[in-house]
Write a structure and sequence with these properties.
It is built from 11 helices and 13 strands. It is of the alpha/beta class and 289 residues long. The protein starts with a strand and ends with a strand. The strands form 3 sheets. The chain has a 6-stranded mixed β-sheet with strand order 10-9-8-13-11-12, with helices on both faces. Strands 2-1-6-7 form a 4-stranded parallel β-sheet, with helices on both faces. α3 crosses α4, α5 runs antiparallel to α6 and α9 runs parallel beside α10.
Length: 289
């Protein structure tokens, strides 16, 4: 029976109209920009966020606390006694751990309810694609346990590959050294990164020039998609205010793989604060990350 709900957090970067259509409830990680806190009750348009970053504003992010997560779970169990929560990667944030602690507390307060928290080991629309797969299964009649088992068994097939325009934001987050950021910028080096099996952000290569870096995302898909080639009915692409590059990447995927269904959206501010304007990421199901 479909006597459960699927929830997540805003790291999914799924569009608001998608969340409304599929009744997806999200916990919100906040950020501070120019002294103002932005959260579920105070949001700014994504393009405005990136414009302010380009103008020099530097956002500061925070994870969800156990107290906040518990408040949200108490709301969710009023909708359904069974909750499947797919959380932001534990390799990038303590939000998953907060959700786990909160779920245990709320279940102890409410005997008979089930809250299952899954570490997605994913980020941005990679996490969003995992949530989407779960929602599609639920809407097609899959049970709580069937969806939970599928997500756990397949989350490491969720491929995340991305590139960035500006190395200095990765330097700020400790991903590259200051020297590498300066030198790479001087010679137009663009890093290729992915999220590994432990949910960590890893540098896996570099190319010279923006167009080559975008094409390299499609090249990697040729290698990693493997036995999932005919199983990807949709591909997700997220971008840091560079829609034209996202559309070009989609055209590459369309030509090479015949995939015609895409969901393209912004990298949200909480992740964009660390990757910066010009980030471009590709998400699909493949043999390996």
């Amino acid at each position: 029976m479909n006597d459960y709900i699927i929830t997540s957090d805003n790291m999914t970067d799924l569009p608001e109209d998608y969340c409304r259509k599929h009744d997806l409830r999200l916990m919100y990680l906040s950020y501070i920009l120019d002294g103002v806190t932005y959260n579920a009750d105070n949001r700014q348009p994504d393009d405005e966020f990136y414009a302010r970053m380009r103008a020099g504003s530097m956002p500061v992010t925070s994870q969800a606390t156990p107290e906040y997560a518990a408040e949200e779970f108490r709301k969710y169990i009023k909708v359904s006694r069974n909750v499947l929560h797919i959380a932001f990667s534990s390799g990038l944030s303590g939000t998953y751990n907060s959700a786990e602690l909160a779920a245990e507390q709320v279940m102890s307060e409410n005997p008979g309810c089930r809250i299952r928290v899954i570490d997605s080991l994913s980020a941005s629309l990679g996490q969003g694609l995992l949530v989407h797969k779960a929602i599609m299964m639920k809407e097609n009649g899959a049970s709580f346990d069937e969806v939970t088992d599928w997500v756990e068994n397949n989350k490491l097939h969720l491929v995340h590959n991305f590139t960035v325009e500006d190395l200095f934001h990765l330097h700020r987050g400790g991903r590259v050294s200051k020297t590498a950021a300066i030198l790479g910028t001087m010679i137009n080096i663009k890093p290729m990164l992915h999220v590994d099996d432990e949910g960590h952000l890893i540098n896996i290569g570099k190319v010279r020039g923006r167009r080559k870096s975008v094409i390299s995302l499609a090249d990697a898909m040729e290698k990693q998609i493997g036995s999932w080639k005919d199983k990807n009915d949709i591909v997700f692409i997220s971008h840091g205010d560079c829609r034209e590059d996202a559309e070009f990447l989609a055209s590459q995927i369309r030509e090479r793989f015949g995939i015609t269904n895409f969901l393209i959206n912004y990298v949200g501010p909480t992740i964009g604060a660390h990757s910066g304007p010009g980030t471009l990421a590709l998400f699909y199901m493949g043999d390996y990350r």
